[in-house]
Amino acid sequence: MEEALKRHKVPKLWQGPIVKTAVVASLQKLDPRHLMKNPVMFVVEVGSVVTTWFYFQGLARRSAQTSFSGQISLWLWFTVLFANFAEAMAEGRGKAQADALRKTKTETVAKRLSGAKPESVNAARLRKGDVVLCEAGDVIPADGEVVEGIASVDESAVTGESAPVIRESGGDRSSVTGGTKVNSDWIKVRVTANPGEGFIDKMISLVEGAERQKTPNEIALNILLAGLTLIFLVALVSLQAFAIYSGGPVSVVVLVALLVCLIPTTIGGLLSAIGIAGIDRLMQANVLAMSGRAVEAAGDVDTLLLDKTGTITLGNRMATEFLPAPGVTAAELALDAQLSSLSDETPEGRSIVVLAKQFAPKPTRLQEHGMTFVPFTAQTRLSGVDFDHTSIRKGAVDAVAALVSKMPAQVLSAAERIAKSGGTPLVVAKNGAARGVIHLKDVVKGGIRQRFEQLRAMGIKTVMITGDNPLTAAAIAAEAGVDDFLAQATPEKKLELIRREQSTGRLVAMVGDGTNDAPSLAQADVGVAMNSGTMAAKEAGNMVDLDSNPTKLIEIVEVGKQLLMTRGALTTFSVANDVSKYFAIIPAMFMGIFPEMAALNVMRLHSPHSAILASVIFNALIIIALIPLALRGVKYRPWGAHAVLRYNALVYGAGGLIAPFIGIKLIDMLLVAAHLG
Amino acid sequence: MTMIGWASFIAVLAVVAACAKPLGSYMTSVMNGERHVLTPVLGRLEALVYRLSAIDPAEEMPWRQYTAALLVFSATGAVAMYAQLRLQQKLPLNPAGLGPVDPALAFNTAVSFLTNTNWQAYSGESTMSYLTQMTCMTYHNFASAAAGIAVAAAVVRGLVRVQAKTIGNFWADLVRVSLYVLLPLCVVGGLFLVSQGAIQNLKPYEKVEGVQGFSQTLPMGPVASQEIIKQLGTNGGGYFNANSGHPFENPTPLSNFVSMFAIFLIGGAMTYQFGRMAGDQGQGWALFACMSLLFLGGFAALYHFEQVGNPILAAHGVAAAGNMEGKETRFGIATSSLFATITTDASCGAVNAWHDSLTPLGGLVPLFNIMLGEVIFGGVGSGLYGMLLFVVMTVFLAGLMVGRTPEYLGKKIEARDMKYATLGILIPSFAILAGAAWAAVRPSALQSLANAGPHGLSEILYAYSSAVGNNGSAFAGLNADTWFFNNTLGWAMLVGRFFVMVPVLALAGNLAGKKRAAPSPGTFPTDTPLFVGLLSSVILVVGGLTHFPALSLGPIIEHFVMLAGKLY
Questions:
Q1: Distance (Å, rounded) from C-alpha A592 to C-alpha B108?
Q2: Which DSSP category does B166 fall into?
Q3: Which residues of A touch B454 (CB under 8 A)?
């Protein structure tokens, strides 16, 4: 993940072009049809219209209040504009990415294979099921599955990764994306998506937020915010009645000002920006979330299913030890092992050669011996070398046992010990006699253990998925510090595990790439498909990792949590702010009727007008001030829930209580200095 | 503030806490339909009731059916009571020949008793016949309390059941609560009050010669039996006008103490019952702790302002030691303050001192207590389910802050739950403000006010808060027996009762159907001091933000004006 983050640098927040577009967009978003979707900001807009009307009425009548209602109106309009600006900023960052993607969608001519000869058609006219031929230099015209051939494909347009990848028919590397380019060789591709519905199209609409729908949690929060807005509306209408009773009705402009200060504008104004920014932050990490719902679900995940290979361990097993049979020295065993692995290009084979060099020098003049290498086959499950009248083989214990007349007990016990410790024993045999055992070991990634400890503190259970036998799996699980493991995993077993976890109310996240992972990806609450995987896997999951880095699941969970935390923190902050606004505005409203109200003016604000204006200005400016927090998200801390709650309640609750007292007082002083109060 | 004042506070809280476990466990058995200590005694009676009314106690109801049963039961009771009030002149046991009750007053009174409010806009002696008093008042004192406890139990079932469609059987809950909880407690409590000197007879009024030589008529009646259900069922409607300030209702300091304790008894025990049913006693105690904390805050403030008293009177040398206006000398400042706090923490409404005569900020406390929704132990049943609404809201905010979809008792709190919780919390505030605002700008309504200025506004606010909160205590000073107040307050009581009950039952029904996730370190615990603190803050902030503007023109400004030397 760290590498991924480094490669995809987080863009600067305030980029000139994005800000410029956002300013324009924030004016366009004043359209009431758009604002209607956000009850809090819609109320502010209606309030702005009302105060503006009073301002013009005052102008016509040359009323003394005109300048005051003018200033209030201005700041109320700014409140709406700032909220629009926040949303536009969040969208703008996505739009910039969408534009980059759109450039890949140039007009392509496809070679459709309908008869014996390919015919040239415009890519836009391709339909699902068509088969096209793509040769070196061609841009693949649409998303599809390779049905024939093998080619190296440059996918940098989608992934940002410059190294080409291999795409071939069958297996888990058969999917290609429209807009990517064939570097060498040729493939035949069956189109799986109509034009406009392809992967890049989806990406564009996602990052632009065009298909954005409110997430479940956002809806719940909106209900609360709408409820609060409504009750404040009633409180202020009733306040006018009580003011009339007390002998001094309040001016509508002041009532609207108080209303806007009280309703949760801070969170109401930033709510959609937070949601868009969440998807965007995943985008920065090169993860495509198919919906905001998926990002939110990631924050709720209780169980992470992680594939052992590549996620928990380095991709390959390494030789770490030679255990010679009786009568054989370690150097002799090392030499035999080395010889048998010289042509073995698998990472395991190379690691054996590397280790053997520490015991015995590389044999010279090999060619003179007329060596023939015997490659590994699924039938023999052995590999090795034949030269002079010598035959060396290496393989699993049972495979080698067939060659050896009598397997020494020491070799057997060594192999068993290795298996128990989670390693893989390879027995080396020379001319029908066992020479010893090579210890191949899974190497657990550095720092992964600490990562799992953090996850545990966050309440997330980690389950390692591996095809290894239970013994090996248990040993690696213990070394990596995962909570549980699923050994000898099959797609069915995986699916069953997910269902079992979900039946107890837990949310499950997993990573997969193969077609046989598709059912599990679909069943999991958060299914992250590797971009290198098959189309079926990508369609089944609700996220795609363009870097195909399974470790990123952990980052995804953190982004999801951050999203919810940011919403919670700003809601708390917004509501806590209200206390100070009462102390600013209520005395200002009623000092005319009851001079004793001055006792509530704890901030000692200069005048009723300056007090009300300062509150409205603070209320508007705080939205701008919190845009970076909304877009970046509150800092994620891998603590337990109790500690996180205590910290956030203190910072955003108590902080939200105190901060506006200071802010309003400062603005009041500035207003007085500028002779505006 | 004196040691005795604080000792009374601690004693009430300690006894309520001590009774929570035995009574709460017992009530759990009762509500679960299990065998318990009273089954051998009253089990046959219970079975007989079921047989006569064709109830199958084992039949489980989905929330809609449960709510329908509650509403049918309530409506029937209210209509029957209204009819009886209107026709009492044609019915027996009306020796005084009292005529039919005025329609608006009959509506107000029927609703008042139906909703466990016991707001009394009438004077019993001159309005209600013996039959009316015996059948309507006493019946509803039991039935409304039992209905509240039943709904709370159903709500708890909704919270703790997993993927269930039903939340219990309303009729069985009603019968069990009445038979096994209210009746035995009333028998014991009533006898105790008699032992203290509360009267319990059917004699005619007695004429006695006072020590100063003039004769006096002493009203008699079966006081003790009504007195105990008044407190236990948080009803609050007194037998006499002076309510718990009257020596026949509340004769001794000990009976006063027992009255206060009885108001909190069931509310306190229900938190334990909640913990028991949830299988996690810490959850119950957390609610108990939150309630105790808010109880402490209210009492400390009220007691403080009453002790300080009125500086203007003090300056004239009229009242040296605090504010004794409107208080019984037998009880004094400390216990009167405690009683006023308790009766408004709960939705009781019994009084042993006049709330109208409290100092401005002293009077703010009972008013604010009611505005918070009476969740501090609260009305029987209604206190618990009202508190659970605030819990849902707190859990939602707190859950977001830790970065998870919020959960309570392993149940996810989602949009639909938030909708019901928000409705249940905000509708009562809405009704208080709308009603009071209407009255405040209606000249004919203002003629009912005894006091002008901020104090008059406090009286209006108190009336609507008391009605919506189903408290029933009055700030007095307001003649509520007018067409306008009888009708608006009547509707306020209905809204305050059923517009909380229905959303909360809907919430229960929705939660019952959900899966229950096992707790993990990622879910924040809801039984810690941190959560109790957050819950208390949410209650205070939501209540405070909603009502501060209104209060600022009532008791708050009255206080500052008083400091400046002016009284209303």
A1: 39
A2: B
A3: 246
Tell me the ipTM for this assembly: 0.91
Residue A427 β-bridge partners: A395, A437
- Give chain B positions within 8 Å (CB) of A579: 541, 544-545
Task: State the distance between the two ends of chain A, measured CA to CA, in whole angstroms.
Answer: 53
Q: Hey, which residues of A are catalytic here?
A: 307
| Helix, strand, or coil (residue B379) | coil
Separation CA A281–CA A294 (nearest Å): 13
B382-398 pLDDT per residue, tens: 999 999 999 999 999 88
DSSP string, B7-75: HHHHHHHHHHHHHHHHHHHHHHHHHTT---TTHHHHHHHHHHHHHHTT--TT---BHHHHHHHHHHHHH
> What residues contact A327, with CB distance under 8 A and at least 6 apart?
none
Tokens 């606010």 belong to which residue?
B461
Residue B493 distance to chain A (closest CA, Å): 19
d(CA B358, CA A332): 101
How confident is the model over A615-627, as pLDDT tens digits? 999 999 999 999 9
Partner A, chain B 387-426, Cβ-Cβ below 8 Å? 393, 396-405, 410, 412-415, 417-419, 422-423, 425-426
* Category of A510 on φ-ψ map: left (φ > 0), alpha (ψ -120 to 50) or beta: beta
CB contacts, 8 Å: B464 with chain A: none
Q: Both ends of chain B: CA-CA distance in Å?
A: 26
Closest CA to B227 of B219, B213, B217, B238: B238
How many Å separate Cα A2 from the centre of its chain? 13
DSSP string of B447-467, one letter each residue: TTBSS-HHHHHHHHHHHHHHH
Closest B-chain CA to A595: B561
Q: At what angle do helices A470-480 and A448-457 cross, to 10 degrees?
A: 80
Among A39-43, A673-677, B471-475, the minimum mean pLDDT is found in A673-677
Please report, for residues A459, B22, B420, B510, the alpha-carbon distance to residue B526 in angstroms, rounded to integers and kept in the order given: 15, 23, 20, 20
As a whole number of angstroms, the distance between CA B459 and CA B489 comes to 13
Which tokens sit at B495? Answer: 């809204």
Task: State which amino acid sits at residue A213.
Answer: Q
Partner-chain contact B415 A216, CB within 8 Å: yes
**A596 — contact with chain B (CB < 8 Å)?**
yes
A594 touches chain B (CB under 8 A): yes
Q: Do B374 and B471 meet the contact criterion of CB atoms below 8 Å apart? A: yes
- pTM to 2 decimals? 0.85
What is the distance, to the nearest Å, from the Cα of residue A279 to the centroid of all Cα atoms in its chain? 7
Looking at the DSSP assignment, which residues form a beta bridge with residue A444?
Answer: A313
CA atoms of A224 and B396, how far apart (whole Å): 10
Contact at 8 Å (CB) between B168 and B154?
yes
Residue B35: both structure tokens together: 């065998």
